[in-house]
Structures are given as structure tokens and as C-alpha cells.
Amino acid sequence: MSDGRATSPTFADVTRDVARTLEPPGNLYFSWMSVVALILTAGILAWAGQIWWGMGMAGKRVPQMWAMYITSFVFWIGIGHAGTLISAILYLFRARWRTSIYRAAEAMTIFAVMTAGLFPLIHAGRMWFAYYLLPYPNQRSLWPNFRSPLVWDVFAISTYLSISTVFFIVGLIPDIAALRDVSTGWRRRVYAMLALGWEGADSQWRHYRRAYGLLAALATPLVLSVHSVVSWDFAMALVPGWHSTLFAPFFVDGAIFSGFAMVLILVLPMRHFFRLHAYIQEKHLDAMGKLILVTGLVLTYFYLCEIFTSLYSGDDIEKASLFWKVTKTYAWALWLMYFCNCVSPLVLFWKKARTSPVVLYVVSILVLIGMWFERFNIIVPSLGHDFYPYTWGIYYPSPTDTMIVIGSFAWFFILFLGFIRVMPSLSVVEVKETLPPPMRDPTHAGRH
Amino acid sequence: MPDATETIVGVFAHVDTTVRALEELRAKGYRDLTVYTPVPVHEIEEVLERDRPVSRVRLFTLIGGLTGIASAFLLTIWTSLIWGLVTGGKYLQFGPGGIVGSSLPPFVIIAFELMVLFGGIATVIGLVVLGRLPRFRPSATFDPRFTNDRFGIAIHCAPGRSGSVREILRTAGAEDVPA
């Protein structure tokens, strides 16, 4: 079973192996959970402190009002791109390597967007007024300004979260039905409820297939639009370093780049601990490595464009802002970003590196660090050095906002760790679809 | 009319035998079939979809998407008219000769998002309605093996024909034809 190429697994193997991942977990799992829960608790306490004592706890001072919260917001939204890219765009392109990783990636997307969604609330301070963001009927006839990119963001992100969740749930239905029919006791009852009575009849599959294709077609432009809209939060403003038409593709590419890194960070341990080597094979790692390499190279190109457009703008303020970024207070963050995002993925030019879990893991961590700092470099140095010297200012992180940002990682991982133990983290149906269908007469074995 | 028809189920282990049985049954004029598969199988769909219209889920998607676009423009234009917020010199207001101003382009973004949102949700509603979900108890012909690794054909036929149906299923290569 460890070597999938010798004998390909049968349909029954897939059901059994996925059901095996849902067996009661051991001590290792619970110790991970405890560590993550502790960090999350610290993050929640920090947030409670910020609510009690006020936003000053988070080191918010003019002009650095966005700082780490919006950095982390953009970072997490970016992470949330890989899942729907894999499940929608690669589905339409019929990229068959996606099948074994897409469920984990979709779950990751939803949890990442749920994490990202916390930051505008945390950042707003009095988050119990968060419903002001939504257009709701009120007696004073006050409505949001639909010309504001921040309102577009509300629509883009809530649509993205809803559609990703819907897509995820629709994909889960036949899988849960398969698990229902091999499990017993209370699990069976819960799965029976969640599967909505799915039986795999032709009258169900024909609508299901059509619906899935349509959802993929709707989600495809959505994936590209979400980070474009997020990028317009910046690009629509006049701040030097932000006001650029480059931002939408630049953000989308960076999002896919960081999203794939996060997929690898989650899938590689899953493959190891659940012994899924027969399903998540070296060719899958290879394909993901290639995607990280390509998006990394495109990102390098965008970085060069960004520098070039600044230098070529003929705008002294723009050039001064660039010079300050590259050489002064935050230069270390910029050069760290260039190293992590432009240099470290280059190792993936070698096939050996693309198939080595250790190398992929290290590159993925570097990429995530680099991509977090990319958003930091866009937000903090740009706000710190805009048009007038009297508005310049340096941002210092405080224990409160640092702990909240670290806590957001714990929140994300606790959701994911919980998910992989109650739901199939490998798609039963889609993995079976990529296997050769059982034929009695082997001459018919060729697909289509 | 519970005893007007009889129901026979054939359990198959292979795709090619299932397809053979389906072709045979259709040739003999049995149309009232339900086929259970663990995954959607191209070869089986080809036989079944031959004389069936395309699933109507797409109609739900279309209506949902159009509703999304329409409601987005209604919301943005109507709220701009009653709450006259002028930003960046852009406005949309009631003037002497009707609606004046132009700020439609940003509303296209809202329209796009709501089109996807409503279209997606309508698609799922279509799936639930057309696929007759949720089902609270399994249908009589369902077998738990059908979601794992077996294929099933359930045939509803006139009483007295069950013998010949069983014969067709067995000849085609059914692994099991439960009584």
C-alpha cells in the first residue's frame, strides 16, 4: 500500500483508507491540539485586553493605523486562494493530480477566510458594531458607500466564504454517504444525517455533476476577483507604493503562491501521519512544487515591475518612498521578503527538491514568512513615508497585537486539526474517479 | 399501486458488466431503471443520458445569477438615490429632469459578487430540489455496497416479468441478484 505505483488501490481500499483516518486519534494528536489551544487562549486573552483597555494596546498610532492586523488579514485571505483554485480552476482544466489534495485545500480555504474575517473585526475595535458594514434597512436611511473599496471587500469576502463553503459541502455529500455505509453506531447516525440520504442513484448523479460544474464555473472568476478587490483597498488610495494598476494581478499571484505553500504545510504531515503515500504520491508533490516555482517567478517579475514603475514614474514622492523602503528602517523586512519569495523557491527547479517532503516543507515555511512580510512591506513602510514629513511615523509591534496575530495561526490550525478527525480529508469519490474503473474484461480498461 | 410492479436489483462488481446489462435491458424495453454507482462513471452515463434532456440545474443557476445582478443594481442605485453621498465628485441623484450623475462602474463589482453568490446558492437549491434531497430513509432498492465499490441496477417491471429480468442480469454478469 505504501507504493501506489506497483498496484493501484481498488475502490474498497479508498473507502477503507479514508475511514481509517477517522479512527480515534492518539496522544500525539491531543498534545498538538493542547499546544494549539493554549496559544489560541493567549490570543483570545490579548484580544480581550484590547477590547477592555482600547486600541492603544495594539500599538495603533497615526499614521500606522493598519499595521499588523491588515497585514494578517491580507495574508490569510491570500492563503484562502489555493483551495478554490484547486477545486474550481483545476477542476475545469481536468488536472487530475488535484483529486488527492483538494479536500484538504478546500477546508484550508474556508478556515483561512474565517481567520481573515476576524481581523477587520479585531481592527475595528468595537466589533459589536461590525454589522454597520452591511447594507441593512434602518430608520435613518443610512446606506454604505458603494463606491468605497472597503464595501466591495465586504461583498467579495462574504461571497467568497459562502461560495467556498457551499462548494465544500456539495463535494462532501457523496463522501459522507460512503463513510455512512461503512461506519457503525453514533458515527453512522451523524453521517446519515449529514449525507442527506445520498445514495448515488443516476437521478442524483446527473444533477450533481451538472451542479458541480456550474459551481466551479462560478467560483473560477470569484477566485481571481477576491484578491483583486482586496488589492483595490490599496490601489484606490493615493499613497505612494499603493496607487498602481499592477496591484490586482500582483496580489492574486502572491495569493496563489502562499496558498500552495500552506497546502503543502498541511498536506505533508497529513500524508505522513495518515500514511496516505498511495494517494498523495510524489507526482502530486512535484506538481505543487512546480506551481509554487511558477507563481514565485511571476511574483519576482511583479517585484521588478513595482520597482521599475516607481523609478520611471517621474514622481519624487514615489521615488523617495521606494528609496526609504529599500534602505531605511524596514529594509530588513524587504530584503527578507525578496530572499524568501524570489530566491528560496528557485531550489524547486530541481526535481529532487520538488519530490522531497523536507525540502518542500522548508521552502513552504520560507514562502509563508516571505508572503506575510510582503503584505507588511506594502502596508507599514508605505504608510510610514508618504507625502509630508509631518505624517511620517514608525510602527512598533506591541505584545497585544503580536499575540493576536500568533493566536490567529492557532485558530486556523485548531479548525484544521478538528476537521481532519471528523470529516474525510481525502475525497473518497474523486480519488476513486481517477482510479481505473473495475472491468471484468481488461481490454475495456482504457478510460473514455 | 404497490403490487402493480415488481422490483429486481442486480449487484455488479464491474463497469463493463453493468453497461452490458443496461444495454440488454434497454433493448428489451425496460425503461424504469435506477442505477447506483459509487462514482459517476462515464460509460454508464453514456447509456443513461442517451435520450434524456440535460439536467435542469443550469436553469436554477441562470435565474439565480440574473436575480443577483438585478438585486445588486437595485440596491446600489436605490440607496445612492435616497442617501445622496457624494464621494470623489461622483454622485447619482434625482435631478429636475430625472436621475442625474454617473457612478455605475463601481456598482458592477457588487453586481458581479451578488451574481456569483445568488447563482451558487440557486445551483445548490437546484441540486437539492431536482435530486430529491434530503431523503430521510433509504429507498427500498438501495444497498450500502453501492457507495463503496459495487454498481447496482434496480428495475421496476410488470409482475411476471421478473424471471426474464433476473435472467438478463445474470447473463450480463451480475455478481448477486437478491430475491
Your description of this structure?
The complex is a heterodimer of chains A (448) and B (179). By secondary structure, chain A is mainly α. Chain A has one domain (11-135, 144-437): Formate dehydrogenase/DMSO reductase fold, CATH 1.20.1630.10. Helices cover 69% and strands 0% of the residues of chain A. Chain A is built from 16 helices and no strands. The model of chain A is unreliable at 1-6 (pLDDT under 50). Chain B has 179 residues and is an alpha+beta fold. Chain B folds into two domains: 6-55 and 137-172, Alpha-Beta Plaits; 57-130, no CATH class. Chain B contains five helices and five strands. In chain B, strand 3 and strand 4 (98-100) form a beta hairpin. The two termini of chain B are 20 Å apart. Chains A and B meet through helix 1, helix 6, helix 8 and helix 16 of A and helix 1, strand 2, helix 2, helix 3 and helix 4 of B.
Compact summary:
By secondary structure, chain A is mostly helical. Chain A has 16 helices and no strands. Chain B has about 180 residues and is an alpha+beta fold.
Secondary-structure blueprint of this entry?
The complex is a heterodimer of chains A (448) and B (179).
Chain A: H1 11-20, H2 27-53, H3 67-79, H4 81-92, H5 102-124, H6 149-180, H7 185-194, H8 202-235, H9 247-273, H10 282-312, H11 316-327, H12 331-343, H13 351-354, H14 357-384, H15 399-422, H16 428-434
Chain B: E1 6-12, H1 15-27, E2 33-36, H2 42-48, H3 57-82, E3 93-95, E4 98-100, H4 105-130, E5 151-157, H5 162-172
